[in-house]
Every structure is written in structure tokens, then in C-alpha cells.
Fold Sulfotransferase family protein.
Amino acid sequence: MAVAQLIVVSPPGSGTPLLAGVTTALGYTSYGTMSGDPAAAGAQPGPGEVYPLLTAAYGPDRGAGLLDRQRADRDTLEVAFHAAVGALWRVWWTRLGQPTTLASPVDPDIEARLTRLPGSALLGLLPGRGCWYVTGLDLRRADAGFLRSWHSGGRPPIVFHHRDIRDRIVQQIRALSQPPGRVGSMPEHLVYRDILATLPTLDAKITLALTDPGFPGMREARHSQWLRHHPAIHVITHEELAVPGRPREQALTRLLHVLGHPGPPPAVAEGDAEDAGDVPIGAGRHFFTPAHEELLHRHHGGLLPPVAPAGVPAPAPAR
């Protein structure tokens, strides 16, 4: 049976849209960094998913009452269900150690009830089939109960998706150098767009990315390195997915195995592969000077693969 929920950790600039296209083709709704609020994402609850969430969010009496009146007042039921989904998303997102705003339209009573649930119970309430995209999974920020539950049961499965750090840095610089209104609303993106705008050359921007520990994506990458080494994490690289051939087929087959999906692997259109990454594979090596390489090894040597001959991406572990 295919798993209902999946977590994908993909640092900024890793070509995440390409993988998101694959998981969407497999029937998963993208949440987190690849979407907005799940309450408005159009995912429909499956059989038996409505009552447990209503009971957890509103208590057994009110939850049963909402279902009893659904024929006479279906609008009220839908509003209540979507309010519960919105609160559930916020609690789940917080447990993953992801940033949220204090100002929220979520009902605080519903949020409080759901917050008290253990990790396994909360996971079982998530409706539909969702793929939760995050830019990092910091062991010190993620909820300890969630991590213990995942460690003991391996659910939901976690995929670590990444690419060569040079390509990722150049991609991030390009993304943050776009006109106002196209860099998103994340505070660090807005701040670093202003900073990058003061630097006259790509050379200077790469130097900033390598020397400023707060540059978007660098902290997330450093604190997510455990994912590369843990035997229960499933690693897929952008280099595998973006280039046709056996590596892509192997990566997709591994993903299907993780999901318990019967297959066959979804097709990856060549246009999608090119558009999702923006920066061609290996382009970072062209833009990095010897001085940049020295800074990279000095400050971020731990983000480099153990063995990576020049021009040849290191293969992802086949697990």
C-alpha cells in the first residue's frame, strides 16, 4: 500500500520543482515550500478521514454533531473541516521545525487540542496524500516527539534531495536577484535580495554566499547533513533526475519503492528537467574561481561529497 505522507528535505536552489513534478504525477499534493495552505490546496479527504480529524479538533460531542447535521448544514461542516485542516497544517509544520508567524487565522482552541496529540496520532490525521517539502530538517529545531516517533517507526519516509553546492549557490543568487515581487515573502529572501543588489558582480555575490553564514540555504544545508548519512533516509540528487538515462531510472525506482507505489515510474519531460533547475548541471564550476574554491573548502567542506572527481557528480547512495 502506498504511503499517505512523505517528507522531502530539499535545500534552496536544489532544483526542487523537478522532484515536485514527479511526486505530483504520483498523486501527491505538494505542501510546504512548494505550495501554500493545504486547507486551500484542493486535496480531498479519503474514506474515514473526516470524523477522526473533527473529533480531535472539536472533541467527540461536537465532532459527531457536525457529521449528524451534514445533510441539513453541509456548509458548516465544510467550514469546520477546513478550519481543522488549517490548524493541523500549522501544528504539523511546527513539529517539523519550520518557521511560522505569530499572527494566524487558525482557531487557537483547535490548535491547542491538536498540539497535545502525540506524533503518530497527528500524522494519522493528515488527510489525503501529501508531500511535505521543507528546506531543512534541523535536529535541534524539529519536535523531539516527532523525531522519536519517526526513529521508531520510519514514518513518514524522508527523502533528502540535493545538488552540487556550487550549482545550488549560483541558483540561489539568481533567484534572489530577481525584481521585487518575485523573490517571495520569506524575510531572509527579502533582506538578502537587498544585500545582493549592492554587489556589482557575480564574483562578489558568490564570495558573499560563501562567507556569510546567514546566506539563505547555507544554514539549512549545514544542519541537514545528517540526512546524507542516516541509513533510513532516502537520497535523491538533482543530477540524477535532470539527466535522461539509467541514473534517472534508478532514482525514480528508488522513490517508488519508498512510497510503496506499484509504478511504473512517471515520465520526466526534458523541458521540465531544464526549467526546474535553471542553472545547468555543472555551471557552478564555471562561475567559481580558484579563490571561491578555496573559500568553499575552508568554510563548507562538509557539504562536499566524499569523492567527487572534477566534472563528475557524486552518485547518491542507493537506498
User: Anything to note?
Assistant: The longest strand covers residues 5-9. The first helix runs from residue 16 to 25. Confidence is low (pLDDT under 50) at residues 37-41, 308-312.
